[in-house]
Write a structure and sequence with these properties.
Helix content is about 40%, strand content about 25%. The chain contains 11 helices and 25 strands. It starts with a helix and ends with a helix.
Amino acid sequence: MPKKLLFLLLLATTLHAEEKLWLDPSFSIRKKIDIDTKATAIADPIGTSAVLVRLHEGVMSFMSAKEDGSDLRFTADDHKTVLKHHVEKWDSLLNEAYVWVQVPELKPEAAKTIWLYYGNSTAPAPEASKETYTADSVLVYHFADAARVGTDSSATGANAEGAPPPAAGALIGSGLRVFGQTPVKVNTLPEWAPGAPLTISVWVKPSALAADAVILSRRDGTSALVLGLNNGVPFVEINKQRSSPGAPIAANAWTHLAAVHDAGTTTVYVNGKSYGQLSAAMPSLKTPLEISKDSAGAGLSGYTGELDELQIAKTAWPAGFIAFAALNQGTTADAQKLLVVGADESSDHEEESEIAKHLTLIKDISKDLTFDGWVVIFLCTLLAIVGWAIALGKFFYLNTIEKASKEFLKRWEKISSDLTAIDSDDSESVKTLGGTVSTKQQKLMRKSPLYQIYHLGAEEISKRLKPARQVTSEITEKKNSGGLSGRSIQAIKATLHGGMVREVQKLNGKLVFLTIGIAGGPYLGLLGTVIGVMITFAVIAKSGEVEVNSIAPGIAGALLATVAGLAVAIPALFIYSYLSSRIKDVVTNMETFIDEFITRMAEHHKEA
């Protein structure tokens, strides 16, 4: 095989494979998201992490997504593996969103690609947010909105009590603003076992730098763990032992704090970097966790300021994980290098047509149709099938008649001026119009009503002429015995009209089923709708649920019966009008031919 041909074949195969790399044809748009730890010099191991993806109108077309963002899907680079995610905030008015995506196996100094798919109006809501985090996460607070300000987004479900309303304009959407007066309590947090690993991560924005300000604490008798700020210096205190101090953080600025306890050592991180350490064993703690104040801690003050993204895990997150979280969740220039959202890519697949969308809606509505409605739709379907079958049969029949009549009239024009050619006792001469028609043409003409009327008239003439034959030695001549009288002509004319009536009956045969569909379809549909509405209101009256969601499906299902009735009647009406028009043309042609035939006959067979 030539190298050029082989190259083209491989190229075509590659392009064909790339075409298939699309999660689902129903998603019309996707975008590439690159996570590059090499560009930000994260050199320590990271692992699986919940990555924050910030979306705004500069990187995403919010108009193409569903109003609540429920059509977002994230996949690995293979476009098959769907990544777990949840939306913390979706604002289609301001065109901004904060989405958390679980990305497995993040590595230091390496790039990883994930894909965002959206633009699917029929996509169901994604899995619960609690699946975005690993089983090691025991508490995740986004402080998202008034309804979820103290809601735990981890699988633990340790919701907070006494949380104040969220503060808008925090680091990531909304945050929690506290004043250090009343603690926010978490009563259902699992026990911290003695010596067990633990990680606490939180963003803080102190409004003032006070002494021994408690960000959070868990105290059980004489045992306690406290995370706080001492005049801006972050510290972890375990059983009254504090971590080594460092430089204070600034007031009114967001700072990421983390405390990681492992094997008797607690390391404090500030903005992803190691800050201080404490060598002290983790005590057993079962009591509620308190945020912004330690109600039982002597000499400690409350934290005043804002909090965001409080997370607690029952494992010791590695240094790379902490550095990645601080960078990814922050707003520095390095954060923009770490995660880059690409441009939209449109699907090569055609978007679902409006007709397909309507059919999908009708399919959904049919699920709420009652048994009575299905009976009506079955009857309407039966009427439609019978009507269409008859209409198709009539259509082909009329086409055949038209073709046969054209063939007959061409032959008739040749012999109509002189009927001598068919003035014979020989029936074959009459059938073949004096031998001018082949067997094949005769077979076609038999399907014409004009030919049938002509043949009937020829037979009537033959009966009435009663030819007298004179036989000589050389030839046999046929002579008319006095031609045709006026009464004979009227009798033949009546016979021809009788034949025409029979042909008209054949043409109109079974059209009554179309009229039944026209008249009966809407009434059947109305019956189904009335019964469906009646049952819907009866169910509502019995259950007592008077809501749009309880009424609308039943009413929509009931109206489907009327749609079915109209779907039978409207096409049947148009088809009936069309067929009636064509049948009327055939009848007119027969009447014209009868008049012409009688005239030619009277001229040819004059009464003696």
